[in-house]
């Protein structure tokens, strides 16, 4: 064997060794897969526990304030009068300051909770992408099933799924689905529902709207008015919806 042949064989073996070393083993992939899954579970549990506490506290504060306002007929009557009498001004102004401060803090907390969700969702999206990559290498389907059903629309997959993966998903047919489309079956059933973040958007929008409406209503009714009471309430309603929509829109997250 001449020297050139030996060099070629040596380089080939070295290259093959590098390729084998660079490719992770099945056990390493499964370990990484489990680490991504645990990280997603921990981050989601931590976030939703904290969010549930703050949402519960804000809802209790809002309910307590409305109950106290309804029960205090003298204060309610003073706020609803077209011209607030002089003896009711200190009480009304104190209520305006308290409601504005508390309402502003609660709205800020809800907004930053949603911004925090963006970070959690971002990390989860990275982990889910890596988990699907591992599933592609090992022939697993756990996350691909959910991802495929969520992105099935009008008889095909959305652009969130790459073309090479679409071919693989179209060919997927587990036992019992030989004569029907797996994705269409699950997407068309009543058990399917959009991501829970869409419901969380609605919950936060409602809470922000209610707090904004209460704060603006108290301020409009307490301050000297240049427009009638009905017009003030309509303007308050519009501003509260606009604020809630803006804050919800600015803190929206991508669904994975």
Question: What does this entry look like structurally?
Answer:
This protein has 256 residues and is mainly α. The chain has one domain. The chain has helices at 3-22, 26-71, 73-80, 89-138, 142-150, 163-170, 182-188, 196-222, 229-250; strands at 152-153, 156-157. Strands 1-2 form a two-stranded antiparallel sheet. A hairpin with a 2-residue loop joins β1 and β2 (156-157). The protein starts with a helix and ends in a 6-residue tail after the last helix.
Summarize the structure.
With 256 residues, this protein is mainly α.
Please bin the fraction of helical residues. over 70%
How far is the N terminus from the C terminus? 58 Å
**H-E order:** HHHHHEEHHHH
- Order the strands across the largest sheet as they lie in space: 1-2
The whole-number mean of residue pLDDT values reads 78
Q: SS-based structural class?
A: mainly alpha
Shape: elongated
Number of self-contained structural domains: 1
Mind summarizing the main beta sheet?
A: 2 strands, antiparallel
Total number of strands: 2
Oligomer: single chain
Rg result = 29 Å
């Amino acid at each position: 064997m001449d020297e050139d042949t030996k060099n070629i064989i040596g380089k080939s073996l070295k290259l093959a060794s590098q390729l084998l070393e660079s490719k992770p083993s099945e056990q390493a992939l499964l370990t990484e897969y489990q680490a991504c899954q645990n990280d997603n579970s921990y981050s989601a549990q931590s976030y939703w526990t904290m969010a549930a506490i703050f949402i519960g506290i804000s809802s209790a504060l809002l309910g307590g304030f409305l109950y106290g306002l309804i029960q205090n007929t003298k204060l309610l009557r003073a706020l609803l009068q077209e011209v607030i009498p002089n003896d009711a001004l200190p009480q009304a102004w104190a209520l305006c300051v308290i409601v504005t401060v508390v309402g502003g803090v609660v709205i800020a907390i809800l907004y930053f909770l949603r911004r925090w969700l963006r970070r959690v969702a971002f990390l989860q999206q990275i982990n889910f992408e890596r988990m699907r990559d591992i599933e592609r290498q090992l022939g697993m389907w756990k996350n691909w099933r959910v991802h495929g059903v969520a992105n099935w629309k009008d008889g095909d997959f959305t652009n969130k799924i790459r073309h090479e993966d679409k071919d693989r998903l179209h060919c997927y047919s587990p036992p019992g689905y030989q004569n029907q489309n797996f994705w269409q079956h699950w997407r068309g059933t009543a058990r399917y529902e959009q991501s829970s973040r869409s419901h969380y958007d609605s919950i936060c929008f409602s809470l922000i709207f209610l707090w904004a409406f209460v704060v603006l209503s108290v301020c409009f009714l307490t301050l000297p008015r240049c427009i009638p009471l009905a017009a003030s309430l309509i303007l308050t309603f519009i501003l509260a919806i606009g604020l809630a929509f803006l804050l919800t829109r600015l803190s929206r997250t991508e669904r994975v």
